[in-house]
Automatic annotation (TrEMBL):
<dbReference type="Pfam" id="PF01882">
    <property type="entry name" value="DUF58"/>
</dbReference>
<keyword id="KW-0812">Transmembrane</keyword>
<feature type="transmembrane region" description="Helical">
    <location>
        <begin position="68"/>
        <end position="86"/>
    </location>
</feature>
<feature type="domain" description="DUF58">
    <location>
        <begin position="239"/>
        <end position="282"/>
    </location>
</feature>
<feature type="region of interest" description="Disordered">
    <location>
        <begin position="1"/>
        <end position="26"/>
    </location>
</feature>
<keyword id="KW-1133">Transmembrane helix</keyword>
<dbReference type="InterPro" id="IPR002881">
    <property type="entry name" value="DUF58"/>
</dbReference>
<feature type="transmembrane region" description="Helical">
    <location>
        <begin position="44"/>
        <end position="62"/>
    </location>
</feature>
<protein>
    <recommendedName>
        <fullName>DUF58 domain-containing protein</fullName>
    </recommendedName>
</protein>
<feature type="compositionally biased region" description="Basic and acidic residues">
    <location>
        <begin position="10"/>
        <end position="19"/>
    </location>
</feature>
<keyword id="KW-0472">Membrane</keyword>
Amino acid sequence: MPSVASLVRHGRDPRDPRRGTSRAGRLVRRDAPVWTMRPTPRGWGLLAVGALVTGVGIGLGSTDLVRLGLVALLVVVAGAVWVLVVDPTRGRHALRVHRSVTPNPVSAGSGATAHVQVTAGDVASRVRLAEVQLGEQAASQLSGGLTLRARVERAPASITLTYPLSPVRRGRWPLGPLVARRTDPFGVVRTRATLGEAVDVAVWPEVAELAFPAGALVGEPDRVALGARTPSPDDAGLRTYRVGDDLRRVHWASSARRGELLVRSDERAGRRPATVLMDLPADRSGIEWTVSLAASMGLATLGSGHPVRMLGGRSLATRPLAESVGALTHVREGTGVSSRAELLDRAVDLEPAATEAESEADLLAAAAELTRSGSGSELVLAVLGPLTPRARAALAEVVDACEPYAVVRLPRAAGAARRDAEVTLGALRRAGWHVCSAEPGENLEDVWARLLETAR
């Protein structure tokens, strides 16, 4: 009867998506198959007794004792040969594994269900399947740190494992591969091998459904001219082409007259584009709260008809903002679930920069993008922490080109960090930003309500 062991939990090194970490902290390659064979306690006992009896027999010149000792040793050797021959993970009769997670991606704090089906293609494979013990591996971020048990459904040629997942943290976390354990008929040798391949489960940040009252932050202009420096009737609603824009939106006549590529702005929606800007802190709880708030604001803005992009942080899949073009494009509402999914996907891998200098460079690059010629007048929704004087000065210039709103994180404890945050709050307010303060962990709806109050 196959059994299902407790799920083996392991984490991930945030700087290498190909690697996982055992509970001891040792890095292991996730894509490297694992196969081990070792004697069981009974096997070790037979080896010890066989070696002792053989040695005594040789010392006493007793052929019978030597034969008896060799028999004990041969039992262990025969067991090792047997488990090699009937290994369920290799050869023509290897078992096949299919793994799926529903839904995938899944939001942090929500539930998902994993299905793992192990199938045998022939009679020899069925024999292996009937005697193998299976254990599943899962990242602790997918199990909430709890031991999970799977429901097992058996059929003549397959075994199906079904178990719940409770993701607790945003990211891409590994699930699998299976661990197959097998013991020989004598119970003297045991093998442990990985079966199948691992899959990554994408966990979106936990978000709140924020209400976006009509005209709450900006008016609704009849026409938005983005980047048209000297608009004519043909140039109205045009802006400079950016890498990633749909070529079908290029206005060729105006582009030929101007000498540069121009694309039509989103006049149909009647909404100016929006940028959600994040300054990620160093502590994990602060990071997740910041990303959740930023993603929630982005979804609310997207749902109201504004094209939205997210700037800030470092992604495992992309380069810094100053070197990346993919992060500069806007997600446009109108494609249903896919637009929300695209925006949330951009938030999955976000992590803070490794150093304060790199973090400042990201903010400076974002401010330069928002104020550069042809970027257009955008709605900016920012979640910021204590800023350096240089970053404060760069963001102050955003007021001249955009309609900026910011939530400034205030540390709960008094100290230098809180004083720096209060200085940032005052500097942005004096520069013309609409700002409110919030403590990390605070209810997202309450923070959003305070930010909306600053627009009145």
